[in-house]
Amino acid sequence: MDARFPQIAEQLLLIERELRLQGWWDEKSPSAEALSSVEPFSVDTLDFHQWLQWIFLVRMKQILEQDLPLPSASGIMEMAEMVYADKPRESQGLRAALKKIDQLIVGAR
């Protein structure tokens, strides 16, 4: 098991918590078509919070549970900065957790 997994798991829980606190957590899944986008962050079919919930969190949990290799790069914080530029206060906790994820992934290089 990668030594970073426990810290990443903690950040994933914080991301979910922040999405719920801000009302950015959806109870209903987007369509299979929307979830199958090949664009970065599924920008053509999903809002960023939907991508976090339905793609990113799901995939990262699979990586941790199945002891798979972590991605070799991460730029999720840059995307969050753009998406939440008009919501700096509301997104502060979410952006902090995403920044930590980036640091944990990139830090292993």
Structure description:
The protein is mostly helical and 109 residues long. The protein has one domain (5-22, 45-106). Helix content is 57%, strand content 0%. The protein has helices at 5-21, 32-35, 48-65, 76-83, 92-106. Helix 1 (5-21) runs antiparallel to helix 3 (48-65). The longest helix is centred in the middle third of the chain and has 18 residues, at 48-65. The model has no long low-confidence stretch (mean pLDDT 95).
- Count of strand segments: 0
What is the number of helices? 5
Average pLDDT number: 95
Percent helix among the residues? Answer: 55-70%
Give a summary of the structure in a few sentences.
It is built from five helices and no strands.
Sum up the structure in keywords.
109 residues, mainly alpha, 5 helices, 57% helix, globular, YqcC family protein
SSE arrangement:
Blueprint: H1 5-21, H2 32-35, H3 48-65, H4 76-83, H5 92-106
Protein name: YqcC family protein
